[in-house]
Amino acid sequence: MTHVLDNITVIDLTQAMAGPYCTMMLGDMGAEVIKIERPGKGDQSRGWGPPFMEGESTYFLSVNRNKKSLTLNIRSEAGQKILHDLIARADVFIHNIPKQASRERAKVDEATLRALNPRLIYCSVSGYGNSGPYADRPGYDMVAQGEAGLMSVTGAPDGEPYRYPVPLADMTTGLYATIGILGALFARERTGKGQSIDVSLLESQTAWSAILAANYLNAGVVPPRLGNDHPSIVPYQVFPAADKYIIVAVGTEKLWAAFCQSLGLEHLQNDPRYRTNADRLAHRDELTAELEAIFKTQPADFWLEKLRQAGIPNGPINRIPETMEHPQLRARQFIVELEHPLAGVVKSLGNPVRLSDTAVSYRTPPPMLGEHTAAVLQSLGYGDAEIADLQSAGVV
Fold first, then answer.
1. What is the DSSP annotation of 348-387?
2. Are 55 and 15 a contacting pair, CB within 8 Å?
3. Active site residues per annotation
4. I need a labelling partner for 60 at 20 to 30 A (CA). Which of 28, 38, 76, 167 fits?
5. Are 48 and 346 in contact (CB under 8 A)?
6. Given pLDDT bands bounded at 50, 70 and 90, which one contains residue 1?
7. What is the phi/psi pair of residue 109, to 5°?
8. Is the pLDDT at 157 greater than 90, yes or no?
9. So what's the pLDDT on residue 123?
């Protein structure tokens, strides 16, 4: 099978979520990803649990397929030499060490590695970026979610702010890092030169507020907290049916007419308070109360089928187990299963990018700590005795 990133080697000196999510995407697209981990400890997310599968954290297992694990003490001179040997023949280096001084001490700063390999794509993942007054501060997902402003508009209007319940800032930063690396590799095809990429949690998370930011920057509008209500479309929200919640998205006047007719609500369609979307926005509370009373009279499937037949965008609010059994996701084989030497069958979500000619693939399970250390060192020309000495010295 041919992949987009065949013959591309990525040296991954990241841990937790943002960087590993990026390198998993690259690995899915065919890159050889060598994950550098601390001897005896590894990626910090290996310990983030429960749940565990035979000692392996499911958190770690979720974002580390298609990688090789090399344990390496990069504070040691011998460890730095091994890393530099790998960098000299690599295409991409990605790290999440926030402080320039720390990068220089470990000899993984851009100037040092660029001298070894001018074609190297050098990607920094950090909380705040490599410049500015916050450059040296550590970054964490929840801090970025709050500092970027989105938590201020998330949650019920009269409740506390809510973070998104997964590391959204981390994962978004990983996606932007992936985009940057792919762009830099494409540019290198024309110039022959590598370049640096600087992505941060704060900017990646703030980017989600594009519409809200435009409203404020250009019109001075400070967005309120609306819960599940849409700021400019009604009805476009969550409603409680008799047994569970459903989502109804009536985005046009044509859909409003079809919505009313399909549910026998012509009296609402003809009500001057609800005639246009602007009218419905002005009378959101009254309309919502009327619709909630109606939807509560029947179970979700009753309403969803009626709405589907009328062409109204809608859907249930599934629990995670229901989503994992979703017929569309199952039909498109979005649940990946890989055999792990300790944990058995490990399941994870697939790569959403579907390429017709160079499809992604799922080749190897998340690695055990140091699983590929000997193989990687052998590829650099180290013999068995040398590898044993490095292990005894705590270098690998």
1. EE--S---SSS-----SPPPPTTTTHHHHHHHTT--HHHH
2. no
3. 170
4. 76
5. no
6. confident
7. -70, 160
8. no
9. 98
State the DSSP string of 185-204: HHHHHHHS---EEEEEHHHH
Residues 60-70: tens digit of each pLDDT: 999 999 999 99
| Contacting residues for 133 by C-beta, under 8 A, at least 6 apart | none
Average pLDDT over residues 284-304: 95
Q: Is the model's pLDDT at 108 over the cut of 90?
A: yes
**1: which residues sit within 8 A by CB, 6+ positions away?**
359, 361
- CATH topology (fold) of 9-208+353-392: Rossmann fold (3.40.50)
Q: Which residue intervals of the chain bear CATH 3.30.1540.10? A: 245-316
Query: Taking residues 287-309, what's their average pLDDT?
Result: 95
- Residue 150 to residues 18, 168, 191, 228, 367, Cα–Cα distance (Å): 19, 11, 39, 14, 35
Spatial distance between the Cα atoms of 285 and 289, rounded to a whole number of angstroms? 6
pTM of structure: 0.92
219-255 pLDDT per residue, tens? 999 988 888 888 889 999 999 999 999 999 999 999 9
Assigned token pair, 166: 């997964």
d(CA 13, CA 119): 18
Radius of gyration of the chain (CA): 25
Helix 253-262 × helix 300-309 angle, to 10°: 130
Residues across the chain: 396
* Residue ranges, CATH 3.40.50.10540, the chain: 9-208+353-392
What is the number of other CB atoms lying within 10 angstroms of the CB of residue 174? 26
CA–CA distance, 247 with 240 (Å, rounded to integer): 9
Q: What's 245-316's CATH class?
A: alpha beta
Whether 335 has a pLDDT exceeding 90, the answer reads: yes
- Lowest mean pLDDT: which of 112-121, 124-133, 159-168, 270-279? 159-168
Count of CB atoms within 10 A of residue 198's CB?
A: 17
**In contact, 74 and 106? CB cutoff 8 Å:** yes
